[in-house]
Structure formats: structure tokens, C-alpha cells
Amino acid sequence: MLQKNINITVLCENSVGGTTRLIGEHGWAVGITTSSQRILFDTGQGLGIVNNSDLLNFDLAGVDKIVLSHGHYDHCSGLPLVLPLTGKIDVHIHEQAFNRRYHKQQDSESVRDIGIQCTQSHLESLGARFVFNKDFTRIVDGIYLSGEIPRVTSFEKPDPTLKQADHSDTLQQDQLLDDQTLIIESTQGLILILGCAHAGLINILTHVQQQLPDQPIHTVIGGTHLGFASDEQFAATVEALERFHIQCLAASHCTGLARGADLARTFGSNFRFAPVGTKIHIP
Q1: Which of 8, 115, 148, 279 shows the smallest number of beta carbons within 10 Å?
Q2: Within its chain, how far is the Cα of 35 from the centroid?
Q3: What are the pLDDT digits (tens) for 155-201?
Q4: How do the domains of the chain map onto residue ranges?
Q5: What are the DSSP E strand ranges found in the chain?
Q6: Bridging pattern class, strands 271-273 and 112-113
Q7: Taking residues 99-104, what's their average pLDDT?
Q8: Looking at residue 107, what is its pLDDT?
């Protein structure tokens, strides 16, 4: 079933556009309403989610489902603030999202905790009913979660600064298998809501197209992690991206301003930045 009257509102992002008193933060959250559903995708760091949702007229108390793209603090830390407003609610998430996550530069001894900052049991006590998945999953008619993304491209590599701790507390490369994308079937084609695209933007698009082959990808919004990509990876990504003929590429968060500007030069009117306050409507 196609979803209709789709409204996408950016609630948390690094920068702000539009309405006064909105709060920017290093984070990401999107409010989605359709003719039948109200979904919150990610929750940011927690600095702006309640304030911005109120100013942008996205009713958190009326949310039907919450989706968390992956287990990083800048996507999940607003959850303890949202749950008292929603009451008991299904929270869709990958089973590895609660892994212990860290950031470490190769030439530095400094290690920073970037994982989910609350325990699963604490969030459950606030009303979260976690629904774990790792496969491509329909959460309601016309709305899907990608599940784990197969890594098929040769040029999309894991970010070497992202680590996870194993059972002996040794830091290992984090493959971020929990990185998921939300997909909506619309009258214009598929709408993809990204978290950070840690799985690789082209890997994600390829996987979604294989799962739903009869519909073009119309809109892609969210973080692409291209701000951390090498020049070679970025060039290969752009070349592959052009083959999907996306009508609306709304990049944000970990895309970075420099790579966003490069994408704007390449894709012209089909590209836009997506700061807090961005609204996209698809009838």
C-alpha cells in the first residue's frame, strides 16, 4: 500500500534554518507523518528534540512508532526525553545498537564514548518496547526498515575512527551492522530516511532497490557520512549516485558542508541541504 500525504520535518540537525528559537546540535532526528502514521526517526542528542518539535508543530505525544537508525549518542540520546511524552511505544532498533561504541583517532590515546548513553532496562522503564530486527522488515503497510545492509561496493569502507569494545574490552573496528534506513512507498517513488549511512550510501541504495525493484528511489534525506570520506570514495560515490536518478537528495548531519557543496554543484536543483526546520511534502 502506498503511503499518501507524506510530510517530513527535520527536528534535529547540526544547523538551523527558518523559524526562530530552533536549536541546532550535532545530531539527527526527523518527524514523519503520512495519511495513516506518525513516526519519529532518531532523537538527536536531546538538546533540541522537544523544543524543536513544539516549534515545528510535530506532536511527539501523538507518535505511533519510534525508529532508531543505529546506536550512536547523537541519534538516540533524546529518547529519554521523548518517552515520557509518548507513553509506552514500540521502538524499532537493531539488536546490536546497544554495543559499547567509541571514537578514537589512530594517532591519539584519547577515547570517547559515543554509544547509547542509557541502558536498555532504563529506557524500557520509561516506556520503550524495543522491537529488534536485522532483516528487511515491513513495520506497517508501505513503510519498511532496511535491516542489515550488505556491503557490496569496493569503495565504501568503514570509518577507521569508529570502534566497539569486545568482551575483553579490546577496541575493534566497528562495522556498524545496526545501521538502518527507513523506506516509505509513495506515489512518487521510494523515500529513504537515512541515519548516517555508515553502511555506505551506495550499498544502501542498492539494497533497497533489490528489495523493492519495481519502484524508483525518489527522495533520499539524511546523513551520508561523506564528510569523512576520502576524495576517491567521494568521487566513486557521486558517479554511482548519478545512476539512481534521485529527484530529491537532501543531505545533512555527517555529510558536512564541504561535501554538501560538492553535491549541490553536481546535482543542482535536485539537491538541498536539510537543516532543522526543513520540510518536504509528497502528496
Answers
A1: 279
A2: 22
A3: 999 999 999 999 999 999 999 999 999 999 999 999 999 999 999 99
A4: 6-278
A5: 6-12, 29-33, 38-41, 65-67, 89-93, 101-103, 112-113, 128-132, 137-140, 143-145, 162-165, 171-173, 182-186, 189-193, 217-223, 248-252, 271-273, 279-282
A6: unpaired
A7: 97
A8: 83
Residues in Cβ contact with 8 at an 8 Å cutoff, skipping those fewer than 6 apart: 30, 31, 32, 191, 193, 221, 278, 279, 280, 281, 282
Closest CA to 226 of 190, 279, 264, 191: 264
Q: What CATH superfamily classification does 6-278 receive?
A: Ribonuclease Z/Hydroxyacylglutathione hydrolase-like (3.60.15.10)
267-276 per-position pLDDT tens digit: 999 999 999 9
| CA 170 – CA 75 distance, rounded (Å) | 24
HEC sequence for 87-143: CCEEEEECCCCCCCEEECCCCCCCCEECCCCCCHHHHHHCCEEEEECCCCEEEECCE
